[in-house]
Write a structure and sequence with these properties.
Layout (H helix, E strand, L loop, with lengths): L2 H7 L40 H13 L4 E5 L2 H9 L7 E5 L4 H11 L5 E5 L4 H7 L4 E7 L11 H7 L4 E5 L4 H4 L9 E5 L13 E5 L2 H14 L5 H11 L2 H21 L3 E5 L9 H7 L6 E6 L4 H8 L6 E2 L9 E3 L11 H6 L7 E4 L5 H12 L1
Parallel strand pairs: 2-3, 2-4, 4-5, 5-6, 10-11
Antiparallel strand pairs: 1-7, 6-7, 8-9, 9-12, 11-12
Helix pairs in contact: 1-2, 2-9, 3-4
The structure holds pyridoxal-5'-phosphate (PLP).
């Protein structure tokens, strides 16, 4: 099946008991057994729940993997991957990560003896110079957040040696980019964002292809217990059915806004991987179907106060954390999503004081342009 069909059908069957077309919310913690050790495949909902199971199968299929695991948040999914490691292991990651990923690496796992290298992964030779026999994980986010750099997934896969390559595919979604087909071992999602798509759920997910790796991750999922409830899984199954329709419109609106901002006299830089003069345009064009709905820009008057003034003036764009919902959001990385990254680190990766990030929704593009135009003026 093609991705558009898989989004609706892969791993999903009408309910065996009733024929219900929509996967029921199995709001149960436990399951009656015929005799000891003789269950219908479900014993306790931390280990497995039918609604979650259906979502995990759907996620595995749409990411071109074999095994899916859902978690209570994107951070819980990242936490599970890091628990594959042991003291002394090393991780290579990029220097403009999602703030929460940077925080869990440095504030939580560093103290357990895991060593992190934060480098500019857009230049593959930087990876070659830090990868060694202790490197167990390469953690890649592409497009990066919020400066929209693009990392060559296939290029990293070729030089990763024994390390596992994990790709945070939250921004691109499986509709725009398929990391496993490009050589990744693990795909991670903040399902909270585009997969759920309606700003009503917090959830995370992992998808892998290899059975041994899947078993380890299921063991961690069940042992540590950061699983989502069935109602949230139902909402995500519902959201995923329209992912292709939403992503096409997010991408179209994102493109219109990127070109509008590029011409605006108060705007300095615009970060959007669809520009032909974007430094990673060739890779973006090769590994992504469209360029998505995330656009960032900085102001000629580069101050926090100036950015905050604009943020307070939009009406259609809500000033809020998060991204990937149907409604447009506007945010300020330096004081919101990326506040946990020290200023010097931020500046090195292009997160200027005035940088504003847009999660462009699926509204009418003219209304969005008018809203930005009045806020900027
Ligand atoms: C939001 C986000 C996360 C964290 O996910 P939560 O669901 O908020 O825990 C990780 N990576 C990226 C790129 C994100 O945008």
């Amino acid at each position: 099946m093609k991705i558009e069909t898989k989004l609706l059908h892969a791993g999903i069957k009408p309910d065996a008991a009733t024929g219900a077309v929509m996967t029921p919310i199995y709001q149960t913690s436990t399951y009656a057994q015929e005799s000891v050790g003789n269950s219908k495949g479900y014993e306790y909902s931390r280990t497995l729940n039918p609604t979650r199971h259906t979502l995990e199968k759907n996620l595995a299929a749409i990411e071109n993997g074999e095994y899916g695991m859902c978690f209570g948040s994107g951070m819980a999914a990242i936490d599970a991957v890091l628990k594959l490691l042991s003291p002394g292991d090393e991780v290579v990651s990029s220097n403009d990560l999602y703030g929460g990923s940077y925080r869990i690496f440095t504030a939580i796992f560093q103290k357990y003896g895991i060593k992190f290298h934060f480098i500019d992964i857009t230049d593959l030779s930087n990876i070659e110079s830090v990868v060694n026999e202790k490197t167990k994980l390469i953690w890649v986010e592409t497009p990066t957040n919020p400066t929209m750099k693009i990392i060559d997934i296939e290029g990293v896969a070729k030089i990763k040696q024994q390390a596992l390559l994990a790709v945070d595919n939250t921004f691109a979604t499986p509709f725009l980019q398929s990391p496993i087909l490009l050589g990744a071992d693990i795909v991670m999602h903040s399902v909270t964002k585009y997969l759920a798509g309606h700003s009503d759920v917090v959830m995370g997910a992992l998808v892998v292809k290899e059975e041994g790796l899947a078993k380890e991750l299921y063991r961690i999922q069940n042992s540590c217990g950061a699983v989502p409830g069935p109602q949230d899984c139902f909402l995500v199954l519902r959201g995923i059915k329209t992912l292709h329709l939403r992503m096409e419109r997010h991408s179209l609106n994102g493109e219109k806004i990127a070109f509008f901002l590029k011409k605006h006299p108060k705007v300095d830089k615009v970060y959007w991987p669809g520009f032909k003069d974007h430094p990673n345009y060739a890779i973006a064009n090769k590994q992504m179907k469209h360029f998505g709905g995330m656009v960032s820009f900085s102001l000629k008057e580069d101050t926090v106060a100036n950015a905050h003034k604009i943020l307070a003036k939009t009406n259609v764009f809500y000033l809020a954390e998060s991204l990937g919902g149907v409604e447009s959001l506007i945010g300020h990385p330096a004081t919101m999503t990326h506040a946990s990254i020290p200023r010097e680190e931020r500046l090195k990766t292009g997160i200027q004081d005035s940088l504003i990030r847009l999660s462009v929704g699926v509204e009418n593009a003219d209304d969005l342009l008018e809203d930005l135009s009045q806020a900027l003026s």
